[in-house]
Amino acid sequence: MTMRLYGAKGAGSMATHAALEEAGADYEFTLLDLSKGEQKAPAYLAINPNGRVPTLVDGDVVVFEGAACLMHAIDRHPDCGLAPAPGTAERGAYYRWLVWMTNTLQESGGAWAHPANWAPDEATRPKVQAAAVARLERHWDMAEAGLAGRHWLLGEAMSGADLYLFMLAYWSRRYPVKAQDRPNCRAHARRVMARPAVQRMMAAEGVDWELG
Q1: I need a surface site. Which of 26, 29, 106, 178 has the fewest CB within 10 A?
Q2: What is residue 211's predicted lDDT score, i.e. its pLDDT?
Q3: Mean pLDDT over the full length of the chain
Q4: Domains of the chain: which residue ranges?
Q5: Rounded Cα–Cα distance for residues 129 and 6 (Å)
Q6: What is the pLDDT of residues 19-42, one digit of tens each?
């Protein structure tokens, strides 16, 4: 059955979109224009009441939240090589990196980019952003250390965690703390972006990135 991924240009759909391309999945991609509020349309809210992207529809199964969409897409294509076997040490590391990225690294980036979500009082938003910058420095240092001496987060094999890290690194290009300012993270982003599947994803979403 054909899956449908709902996303937006350079948004939280990037990692799942790339994984579906890597897997050679049977899927369709619907690009929503967030500037026009298409994510708030009644038809979309019926499948994702959060009014956010991504959403992955797989038959009667509806999955939202970026990491959940990514893991579901990969699990539906077990031969794609993007996740280690369940029960292995590598699978534990895969979970650890993905949950850390979505709960910690992504949250800090969101606090800097959207401080109003954390501080309704406009006067306190600069403090929220300053604290987020300090956290992002630590978080990107952790990613940098995790990539030391290896091509991919799990070692020799690329996984969905690398696609998720690439997405967050892409977002960081507009942050005061950028992934590409760290050599291991920059080299990792280049490796991911060189993959044909990732190039196809970026072309479909209208995304480009000059890493320098």
Answers
A1: 26
A2: 83
A3: 96
A4: 3-80, 89-195
A5: 30
A6: 999 999 999 999 999 999 999 999
Q: Which CATH number fits domain 3-80: 3.60.15.10, 2.60.40.10, 3.40.50.2000, 3.40.30.10?
A: 3.40.30.10
> SS3 for 23?
helix
Tell me which DSSP letter residue 87 carries.
T
Please state whether 101 falls in left (phi above 0), alpha (psi between -120 and 50) or beta: alpha
Instruction: Give residue 143's pLDDT band: very low, low, confident or very high (50, 70, 90).
Output: very high
CA neighbor of 95 nearest in space, from 64, 79, 74: 74
CA distance 201 to 205: 6
Number of separate helices (H) and strands (E) present in the chain: 9, 4
Neighbouring CB atoms inside 10 A of 203's CB total 10
pLDDT value, residue 50: 96
**Any idea which fold 89-195 has?**
Glutathione S-transferase Yfyf (Class Pi); Chain A, domain 2 (1.20.1050)
d(CA 158, CA 83): 8
| Burial category of 94 from C-beta neighbours within 10 Å (exposed 0-12, middle 13-18, buried 19 and up) | buried
CB 170 within 8 A of CB 144: no
CA 55/CA 129 separation, integer angstroms: 28
Backbone angles phi, psi at 82, to 5 degrees: -95, 5
Half-sphere CA count of 140, side-chain side, radius 13 A: 28
